[in-house]
Amino acid sequence: ERIPIKASHYKVIAFDSSDPTRMDLHPRGHWSSRRSEPTALMLHWGGIDAQHCFNVFNGDRKVSSHFLIGLVDSEVVIYQTLDIAKKAWHCGKHNDWTVGIDICQQPTLRWFSLYKKKKYDVQHMENPTNRGPQKLITLDPRLVKATGEFVEDLLRALNIQRIAPSSFSPADPKQYTVLSHAHVSKTKFDIAPWWSMIFDEEEA
């Protein structure tokens, strides 16, 4: 089934597109069949950029995600790498009921110079959460805007109401429809430091 996406601040390239830059994880086999339709979106950060993230997923680590959000020549491109009807391997026991979305920018300071060289609009930031290093890199504003809009567009397309938790490690993650990896794991911190940046921007 084809589901239309508004895509006003980003470009979508599906795995079965005629676009030569498409990214398809189906042949790699790091996915499985779903038992039921997904009821929530799960956000992560992955890779230095979308191509790097795809290369990692296409390697031997047995991980995958449905969507990769990255900057390509100053434009935000969202690559759909797997059919939503398939279960991606991105969040352990939560894979069955979620759609995996990776924001393809790294958060730690070691990558700051590289992103500046690549013309990303990033700054140093204080981590507003108790997860991860105290100092990190801001998410490029183009990725902030596109991610917030894509989440809303995808929820609308899938007919899912947005319900997001206000704290980490909620007792029952399944009552929510938009989550970060940090919400369901005590050891992961993606995308906790960027969470309010993305969704406060989207609501502004």
Structure overview:
By secondary structure, the protein is α/β, with parallel strands linked by helices. The chain is 23% helix and 21% strand. The chain is built from five helices and ten strands. The strands form three sheets. It has a six-stranded mixed β-sheet with strand order 1-5-4-7-3-10, with helices on both faces. Strands 2-6 form a two-stranded antiparallel ribbon. A two-stranded antiparallel sheet has the order 8-9. Helix 3 packs across helix 5. The longest helix has 17 residues, at 141-157. It is globular and about 40 Å long. The mean pLDDT is 93.
The end-to-end span amounts to: 33 Å
Strand order of the largest sheet: 1-5-4-7-3-10
The helix tally amounts to: 5
The coarse overall form would be globular
Low-confidence stretches: none
One letter per element, helices H and strands E, the order comes to EEEHEEEEHEEHEHH
Assembly of the depicted chains: single chain
Nearest-integer average pLDDT: 93
Number of strands: 10
Radius of gyration: 16 Å
Share of residues in helices: 10-25%
- Strand count, sense and closure of the main sheet? 6 strands, mixed
Strand content is 15-25%
SS-derived structural category = alpha/beta
Concise structural overview:
The protein has 204 residues and is of the alpha/beta class.
What would the keywords be for this entry?
6-stranded mixed beta sheet; 5 helices; 23% helix; two-stranded antiparallel sheet; alpha/beta; 204 residues
What is the topological layout?
Elements: E1 11-14, E2 31-33, E3 40-45, H1 50-57, E4 67-72, E5 75-80, E6 86-88, E7 98-103, H2 112-117, E8 124-126, E9 135-137, H3 141-157, E10 178-180, H4 181-184, H5 192-203
